[in-house]
Write a structure and sequence with these properties.
The structure holds 2 protein chains of 2 kinds. Chain A is an alpha+beta fold. Chain A has 8 helices and 9 strands. In chain A, α1 crosses α4. The radius of gyration of chain A is 19 Å and the shape is globular. Chain B is α/β, with parallel strands linked by helices. Chain B has one domain: Fe-S hydro-lyase, tartrate dehydratase beta-type, catalytic domain (fumarase). Chain B has 7 helices and 9 strands; from the N terminus they run βαβααβββαβαβαββα. Classes of the chains: A alpha+beta, B alpha/beta. At the A-B interface, α3 and α6 of A face β4, α6, β9 and α7 of B.
Amino acid sequence: MRDLTETLVEFIRRTSTDLPPDVEQALTGARDREAPGSAARGALEAILQNVALSRRNSTPICQDTGTPIFYVHYPAGWSTRQLREQIRAAVIQATKRSYLRPNAVDALTEKNSGNNLGDAAFPTIHFEEIEGDELSVDLLLKGGGCENVGAQYSLPNSALGAGRDLAGVRKVVLEAAHKAQGQGCAPGILGVAIGGDRGSAYSASKEVLFRQMEAINPDPQLAALETRLTDETNQLGIGPMGFGGQTTVLGVKMTSMHRLPASFFVTVSYMCWADRRRRMVVRGDEVLYD
Amino acid sequence: MRNLTLPLSDEAIRELQVGDPVALSGVMVTGRDAVHKWLIETFIKKTRSPQGDDQVVYEAIRPLLAGSAIYHCGPVVAGLETQQYRFVAAGPTTSTREEPYQGEVMRHFNIKAVIGKGGMGPKTLAACETGPGVYLHAIGGAASLIAQTVEKVLGVYKLDFGVPEAMWVIQVRNFPAVVTMDAHGHSLHAEVESRSKTELERLLAA
């Protein structure tokens, strides 16, 4: 089997240091909407300068390079055991080259492993076999600040008057955005999963973050709710960094899952403005980075 | 933009108001979760006795923190193998996790400025009023940009806490931040929280 380790190091470098163009464009639009001279505009100007500088110098956009979350879709014939070893080797190498910060801390001993490897879930690697002959890897670097403001609600929620329907979903998502204030590095992107169980829903709420900013939800009800929630969250006025302003979120991405009759979870993952997500594709001898 | 040189005088602190953009120059120290817990337990509440190099580190950081700034930051640092340290990425981390400790740490060490992101709560605001002190908000995620203002890494303590959690002594030039909590009892975070709460209630009632 082919050794992808060096290819994966380059992939991690791009993800950590080069913000996707659609996110940068959304940030540029947000900057233009803030009043000249305001703290909110100043924050977005600094953010955009930082994005350009990170790309030019190959330095991490944010020092918190998070838990690296990989999704590998592989055709038959690849060994997931070997791919896992190569991903882990690439993570060590990327950490040595300062593309990643050593982030894996043993929760009992408090020791930082120093090389970004922890248990089987650090880095997180999902594998799925697919048809065809292309292997693809998606990577999300999600830092701890935004991870900490994620939230899960069980409906009905009487405090918010939220029932088991999309109107109830709207209410709890608004509350989650309010609770987060600027702490998750606003303006971020909300990933929302409706249904599922406590575990599957958190994973799904992160998977929707791989969607492009301008992508329209294939479900018309969710598409409408995404637009409405983006608009209403911005009416909260929390603004960039929580300084107050026009843009509190760049977008909302939603998905729905099957649920148990007794459970109705709404799960919100907050992705910071530094939405570091990238894809690489291996096609024969060719490697394509998005 | 107001230029500030560390260490800061009480007079300079009292002149600062919420909303003022500042550029800091001088020597500051990074410290976040592990550092605050360690300082409180070992030297302030003394529920744990000093071990290893604890006392030596305490004596070394006291003069560095007096009148100066603590920066909530877990940097990416190059040169770990050669000890020729260089900050590569160094944005702020979320400050609110230090809210239980910060006020007491400020008073104990006479820290004048706390730098981080996301703001802090009433205990820290009270410590800013009596200090006097300020909370300076750096731009979250602007890690490459901020690292460029770090001219020199002067040293590191408690590297055994891990790279992100160690106390890095850094010399900065024109480090950019905004005053979001001042010595006069004003907090931009409390204001934004309250205004956005009113909006939330309006939207929930709609």
